[in-house]
Design goal:
The chain has 168 residues and is α+β, with helices and mostly antiparallel strands. The protein has one domain: q2cbj1_9rhob like domain (Jelly Rolls), CATH 2.60.120.620. The chain has 4 helices and 11 strands. The strands form 2 sheets. Strands 2, 3, 4, 6, 9 and 11 form a 6-stranded antiparallel beta sheet that branches. It has a 5-stranded antiparallel beta sheet with strand order 1-5-10-7-8, with no helix packed on it. The protein is globular and about 40 Å long. The relative contact order is 0.28.
Length: 168
C-alpha cells in the first residue's frame, strides 16, 4: 500500500482453517463477538472473506516490519502470541485514527505508538486508522500476532490488493 515496506512471514485464513479447528471456533465465538460489539459500540459481525478472516503475521528477522496501511474491513482484533519485551526492540504499533492518508502517520505530533507484550490484545478501527509496525531491531526477536477481521452490517469494505498479495 503506497509502497510501504512489508517484510514478514504470513499465514492466510484459507491455510489456518485447514490446520486448526480452534482458531475458526474462537473467531466465531458468540461471547467474543458480543464483547467486541460492546467495545466497538456497534454491531460487529464475521466477514465472508476466508483469506482475511483470520491471519497470522510473524516478524522474526532484523528489519521485519508491517508497513503503513489501512485494512479492508472495519475492525481488527489483534492477539499477541509473541512480542519483544523491550519497546526499544521494535515491533511497536504506530497508528493514527481518522487519518486522511498514510503519510499522516509521519506527523509526530498526532500519531501514537503502543508497545504490547505476549498475551496482550487490542481492537482497532482498522479501516480508518493508518497503522504500521516498527521494524525489529536485533536478532532473536519475534512478534507473532493472530489477527481477526470483523465488519459491521452497514460497512462497505474498500478492497485493496495487499491482502491477496500477503496471504494468498
Amino acid at each position: 500500500m503506497d509502497d510501504s515496506p512489508r517484510h514478514m512471514t504470513t499465514l492466510g485464513g484459507q491455510v489456518i482453517v485447514e490446520a486448526s479447528d480452534m482458531i475458526p471456533a474462537l473467531y466465531r465465538d458468540p461471547d467474543l463477538v458480543g464483547l467486541l460489539t460492546r467495545a466497538a459500540g456497534e454491531p460487529v459481525t464475521e466477514i465472508d472473506d476466508p483469506l482475511e478472516r483470520h491471519v497470522l503475521n510473524i516478524l522474526h528477522r532484523v528489519g521485519d516490519t508491517h508497513g503503513a496501511h489501512t485494512d479492508d474491513y472495519p475492525y481488527a482484533l489483534v492477539l499477541f502470541l509473541e512480542a519483544p519485551d523491550d519497546p526499544a526492540d521494535g515491533g511497536l504499533l504506530h497508528f493514527l485514527p481518522h487519518a486522511g492518508s498514510l503519510y499522516d502517520l509521519d506527523a509526530a505530533d498526532r500519531a501514537r505508538t503502543a508497545h504490547h507484550r505476549a498475551g496482550d490484545a487490542y481492537l482497532l478501527r482498522s479501516d480508518t486508522t493508518a497503522h504500521r509496525v516498527t521494524p525489529l531491531s536485533r536478532p532473536g526477536l519475534r512478534r507473532t500476532v493472530l489477527n481477526f477481521a470483523y465488519t459491521t452490517p452497514t460497512a462497505r469494505p474498500h478492497r485493496t490488493g495487499s491482502a491477496t498479495e500477503l496471504y494468498a
